[in-house]
Specification:
6 helices; alpha/beta; 7-stranded mixed β-sheet; about 20% strand; 7 strands
Length: about 180
């Protein structure tokens, strides 16, 4: 099954491997990025993390701090790590550090429908010294354009925690 435990195990294996890019999909819409952040928080040595979202306005929701205003170029404390934020709009990248240890893009769905999708991903790969996490939200897109870049694919479903929600998500995917 595509449970949290399996996803967490795969992410840890990815971190300890020579692989560079992971694609995380599945029906657990709101927990995939949280799981990645949780696992990264356990990395012992201080690091820099770049979190790229579809819009700067969404960081309050994504990072579960709705009253906060996030700005590019500012490193936010995250345990022993610093998290920098920007968006899929290239104009937001100017204040982002060029060399980071880890990069996260969530939701990758927004990138799939963007005319500059290759540029967005290549910028992340070039900035990242270590690992890149591509994380879906709804799985309503074809991610095959990423196949040559992705080293590992992980599925994190909500089937065990909330079977009804999982079924609704699968049903919505079939409508497309």
């Amino acid at each position: 099954m595509n449970t949290r435990q399996n996803a967490e195990k795969e992410i840890r294996e990815f971190l300890n491997s020579d692989e560079s890019v992971i694609l995380i999909t599945g029906t657990h819409q709101y927990q995939k990025h949280s799981l990645v952040l949780e696992v990264l928080s356990e990395v012992a040595s201080p690091s820099t993390v770049l979190f790229r979202a579809n819009s700067m306005r969404n960081f309050g929701t994504i990072l579960e701090n709705p009253t906060a205003t996030y700005k590019t170029g500012h490193g936010y404390g995250f345990g022993s790590h610093r998290v920098y934020v920007d968006s899929i709009k290239s104009t937001s990248w100017t204040k982002t550090p060029y060399a980071v240890d880890f990069s996260i893009i969530y939701p990758i769905d927004s990138v799939c429908k963007n005319n500059s999708k290759e540029e967005i991903i290549q910028d992340l790969v070039q900035r990242t010294n270590n690992k890149v996490f591509l994380i879906s939200w709804t799985d309503n897109y074809d991610y095959s354009w990423l196949d040559e870049l992705v080293d590992r694919k992980v599925i994190y479903d909500v089937e065990v925690e909330d079977p009804e929600y999982h079924a609704r998500m699968l049903k919505s995917l079939r409508k497309i």
